[in-house]
Specification:
single chain, 139 residues, mainly alpha, two-stranded antiparallel sheet
């Protein structure tokens, strides 16, 4: 099975978001992504897995499988859950080097940051920093 490149996956997301004219529809899409997020084990909902800087609670767990990093996450807020789901769909299953060297610019191309409330935008930045930090620690 051929693995798709990071840039191909990001382009798919850019294309998916471009199908929606209104940000309300994009929010609905994010909510749907959050609903499809893999169930996060209750025993992993620990303070050390909480992403600091998010207004809502977001847990992120990272483990290494061979040379890839696998992320699982959960949030108590539906849109935030969709945002972390989007990030996981892109970065889980990638090498630490791929993640650490990525600029996360696809998020700007879909207009995510500027269409979030300031507190959610800060939370997004915290999620990105946490994923980057996990990658850098495992390079």
């Amino acid at each position: 099975m051929e693995t798709r490149s990071l840039k191909e996956v990001q382009q798919d997301i850019i294309d998916e978001f471009s199908m929606f004219d209104e940000w309300l529809d994009k929010y609905e899409y994010l909510i749907d992504l959050g609903k499809n997020l893999e169930t996060y084990p209750e025993e992993l909902k620990t303070d050390d897995r909480l992403i600091k800087g998010c207004q809502s609670r977001v847990w992120l767990d990272c483990r290494r499988e061979k040379d890839k990093l696998v992320f699982i996450a959960d949030s108590d807020a539906i849109i935030t859950k969709g945002i972390i789901s989007l990030l996981i769909s892109v970065y889980s299953g990638r090498t630490a080097e791929e993640i650490a060297s990525d600029d996360f610019s696809f998020l700007d191309q879909i207009g995510l940051k500027e269409n979030l409330s300031p507190t959610r935008a800060n939370g997004l930045v915290s999620m990105i920093e946490t994923i980057r930090k996990a990658a850098n620690e495992r390079k």
